[in-house]
Amino acid sequence: MSAANSAPSSGPALNRPIGPGRGMGHRSLEKPKNLRKTLVRLLKYFGPYKLHLVIILITTAISSLAGVAGTYFLKPIINDLTKYIGHKSPDFSNLIRTLFLMGAVYAAGVVSTYIYNRLMMIVSTGTMRNIRVDMFRHMQDLPIKYYDAHTHGELMSLYTNDTDTLREALGRGISQLVTSLFTVCGVFIMMLVLSPLLTVLVVVMIIVMTLTIKKIGGQSAKFFSKQQRDLGKINGYIEEMISGQKVIKVFCHEDEAIEEFEKLNENLRSSACSAQTFSGILMPIMGNLSYVNYAVTAATGAWLVLLGYTDIGTIASFLQYTRSFSHPITMISQQFNTLLAALAGAERIFEMLDLPLEEDNGFVTLVNIDISPDGTIRETSRKTGLWAWKSPGEDGRYSYTQVKGDVRFNNVTFGYSPDKIVINNISLYAKPGQKIALVGSTGAGKTTITNLLNRFYDIDQGEILYDGIPIKNIKKDDLRRSLAMVLQDTHLFTGTVRDNIRYGKLDATDEEILRAAKIANADFFISHLPHGYDTMLTGDGANLSQGQRQLIAIARAAVAAPPVLVLDEATSSIDTRTEALIESGMNKLMEGRTVFVIAHRLSTVRNAKAIMVMENGEIIERGDHDSLISEHGKYYQLYTGMFELD
């Protein structure tokens, strides 16, 4: 019987300012903190694809070197053709063999290119699949405090920006980098073989081009970084303004919103203009320098031919190598930066994967039981609706304690951080079937008590007993199966209404779902939806009112039918008429069950067995409604409106 537990929201999922590598544009400034460690760990994900990688390396080498070898064939072809000038009956047999050999080399290159591209896609997509699986599985087992400490936007950036950057690098970056390395090495060797003198000239021109790239590229990267920061600011502002349109219109804040947007938009325009300017002039400059290099090499080569130091075929091949030498160098520079950015993203992913999982040292489990007429408890695999805590003994035998819902806090102290105590030496108890209400100002510690009961957080001092068993000894999954929560911030999943109610008990029958909906008084409005219980809900139930969403959440808790029920502002978005209609159903749900109610609407807690008034992490008053009213204390002030809740 799974409880519908939702983690507290950590704030709106706004886009935070995007630094280099966290969005579109240049990522050349971002580098991993520990390159070697991150690279070694990433390589472990390639373990299942060792054979693929060997084939990829071989075919990449063949593909690259085929292009290099194919260019060399220009030398014998042109030299043979020059020999035939003036011959009336030239013999082209040698030329034809050379052309066939050249075609075979290029064909091998084409086949190799197809093979390594296909295999690289298999490796990259498979690796990313495994990384995403590890990320999602690990996140499911992280403690709630991790989600409280990170915004939704920060968490989603791991699955979007970081994984996209890594996917791009694995899919294309690595193969292009390896191809470029093979090509550069092969071309340089062939250039040395053809003409060492012309090779020195080309290297000098490459150095000039590299210095130009460094100078202009540095300015481009700087402005791209500023553009990304400005883009992050404007994206966050737009999302915030769109989600807050009602508030903007209510307070007539349209002009101020437009004015602030125009400032942010102008900053983005300015930085984008500078970034695109430097980026735009880089390629033309490099292209012109490449043409200059080609022209100087051609002129020098022609001079060497005239002096008899070389032949036309050699110069033709060398000029072709010259054209194909600078491009791979540029590609290596670009792909190297892409890989650094990808490794930085991988490092953030691995940092999350290295976070300690939620600790669970419990050994007491929750089991189904039968109770014989003489009171003997027997464990059973049948769904009996009766539960017991199964505890191992020192002698290897198990003892069973029937789950009744007796909850006790004994001198409990807790703080989310060591320097800020939220719960200070609190003691309270709830007997089976009792309804306990927690009231007080915002920040008094009411919700914290329910978080401790679920073991979303562990206490610093004291103990919490559940049916006489310390909850630290109960396995967390079993503990939470015995609880159901209905929170103020209702979360519905994409799926049918029936599926969302069944979330409280995955094996619930349609009859159980219908009965739970009737208890929550949700059956009436569900039946009038376009497809009833099979109506699809998307966007967190955006097509329903807040009250209807909470009714479904109450039905979700009702279908779980746990021994302990926690209602955290569960009826805050339900009007008083609807609240009155579901009161009788909720009373049926609460029969024989312990209920903790947190409420600002004090009319909902009048019938509670005990009301705890909290202030600054302490219980300052306790008793039933009548006794607290007669005391004329804090509860009396809250109830009569002399002091309103925050």
Strand and helix layout:
Layout: H1 35-44, H2 50-72, H3 74-83, H4 93-140, H5 144-149, H6 152-194, H7 196-243, H8 245-250, H9 254-307, H10 312-353, E1 365-371, E2 377-379, E3 387-392, E4 398-402, E5 407-414, E6 423-430, E7 435-440, H11 446-453, E8 461-466, E9 469-470, H12 476-481, E10 483-486, E11 495-496, H13 497-502, H14 510-519, H15 523-527, E12 536-537, H16 546-560, E13 564-568, H17 576-590, E14 594-598, E15 610-615, E16 618-623, H18 625-631, H19 634-640
Parallel strand pairs: 7-14, 7-15, 10-13, 13-14
Antiparallel strand pairs: 1-2, 1-3, 3-4, 5-6, 5-8, 8-9, 11-12, 15-16
Helix pairs in contact: 1-10, 2-4, 2-6, 3-4, 3-10, 4-6, 6-7, 6-10, 7-9, 9-10, 14-16
Question: Could you characterize the architecture of this molecule?
Answer:
This protein has helices at residues 35-44, 50-72, 74-83, 93-140, 144-149, 152-194, 196-243, 245-250, 254-307, 312-353, 446-453, 476-481, 497-502, 510-519, 523-527, 546-560, 576-590, 625-631, 634-640; strands spanning 365-371, 377-379, 387-392, 398-402, 407-414, 423-430, 435-440, 461-466, 469-470, 483-486, 495-496, 536-537, 564-568, 594-598, 610-615, 618-623. It is of the alpha/beta class and 646 residues long. It folds into four domains: 28-195 and 328-357, ABC transporter type 1, transmembrane domain (ABC transporter transmembrane region fold), CATH 1.20.1560.10; 196-309; 365-402, no CATH class; 407-640, 3-Layer(aba) Sandwich (Rossmann fold). The strands form four sheets. It has a six-stranded mixed β-sheet, with helices on both faces. Strands 2-1-3-4 form a four-stranded antiparallel β-sheet. Strand 8 and strand 9 (469-470) form a beta hairpin. Helix 2 (50-72) runs antiparallel to helix 4 (93-140), helix 6 packs antiparallel against helix 10 (312-353) and helix 14 (510-519) crosses helix 16.
